[in-house]
Amino acid sequence: MKEKLLGMTLGELKSAAQACGLKPFVGAQLADWLYAKRVGSWDRMANISKAARQALAQRYDLGVSAPVGTAVSSDGTKKYLFKVSARTPDRTGAHPDIPDAGVDGERFVESVMIPDDDRFTLCVSSQAGCRMGCKFCMTGRNGFHGQLDAADILNQFLSIDEAASLTNTVFMGMGEPLDNYDAVARVIEVLTAPWGFAWSPKRITVSTIGVLPTLKKFLDGQRCHLAVSLHNPFPEERLEMMPVQKAWDIRDVIGLIREYDFSGQRRVSFEYTMFAGFNDDKRHADALIRLLRGLECRVNLIRFHKIPDFPYDCASDQAMAAFRDRLNNHQILCTIRASRGEDILAACGMLAGQHAD
Q1: Are residues 56 and 119 in the same domain?
Q2: Each residue of 110-140: pLDDT tens digit?
Q3: Is 110 noted as a catalytic residue in this protein?
């Protein structure tokens, strides 16, 4: 199998060019075509000679492939389906409470493009499935099927109709980004490097349930925004919905976050999906206030989208508004997130990566 150029750094692209007997500047040209111009075809790389392109193509694959399916919501949200070659992760140092059901092979993942006036946000996937097993998430309930490499993640940026218009990205699609941190960190490097997309880190948000070992790496090494899936302030109740609570207690996660400065350009937010009769009352709001008191952050309340064989419904609009107002009255910024793409199963927790014939 040929090595993919997509996902390589500028230095690696220069080395790839030299390996084909070409000058290093050809690597810089490749970076410009792939990342700045978002071109996924050898034929369109006009300033690289035909002979050079042939030499590169014999040894390397660009790593760019078109989506195999799309669905468009009534609100303009668009869901894309991609075929990927997922791989089993390295289990070195993995937590024993996190299962490993990954199997190398062909899989399908979904990403979601969300338009909002002049803002185009891509909700990108980092794994085929997910190992975290959150009971209210379709991705987690379908199990884990392998890691995406940097090329498979970046291809979601390059191969959609809106590639040239994207303004922001959130790593909130399929998978736990910090469970595939090496690939995600490489993608962030491409997105933010001057030879890459040249984006500001402020345009990137990485979501996590709180994978403590790699969360520290992320906080030390990146300037992107952080979003933490919290969903319940009581550890024993959170464990009912999120098995990962046993591995990494949310109190320890927040304790680590408190060691970092979020008063400047980097922000931290907490995602809180609202379930009627489970986490939507005054008791939970007050516990959340105590848990987050003094931390510069935002809480995003998320409407739960019903999935099969799950006992809870979404909290009422009145309960969500009361919860929001209580947090705001205690100096914790809280908003209710607008739901997008529910009619095409593209809303929070609904991505499944299922391929329809």
Answers
A1: no
A2: 999 999 999 999 999 999 999 999 999 989 8
A3: yes
